[in-house]
Write a structure and sequence with these properties.
The chain is about 75% helix and about 0% strand. It has about 100 residues and is mainly α.
Length: about 100
């Protein structure tokens, strides 16, 4: 069974309708269990740390992710569908532009 189907397209469409972090928090908490949310948060943190060159050992200590999961995140970061790269670039540009007027570059 492919992950790319009408059900996931409907889910992605619903996610795109979220307007605020508070809305996202409410939706994702209803959609997922707390451990699932923690797991996804840790994977996202691992992607951010990997992009900064942090070692697997340090990432594992901070996130409690297995080295296998960290390796999978690393693989997707390097040769996945570029979703991690897209969001890392978008967030870094957002932070740079939001702090530009504050002398915090």
């Amino acid at each position: 069974m492919s992950w790319n189907n009408n059900k996931t397209e409907d889910l992605l469409g619903a996610i795109l309708q979220l307007k605020t972090q508070a809305e996202a928090r409410r939706f994702f908490r209803d959609l997922m269990t707390e451990p699932e949310l923690v797991e996804f948060g840790n994977r996202w943190l691992a992607a951010r740390l990997l992009s900064r060159g942090v070692s697997y050992t340090k990432i594992s200590a901070r996130t409690r992710l297995s080295s296998t999961t960290i390796a999978r995140v690393s693989k997707w970061l390097k040769s996945g569908m570029d979703g991690y790269k897209l969001m890392l670039n978008r967030i870094s540009h957002h932070h740079a532009s939001s702090s530009a007027g504050k002398g915090v570059l």
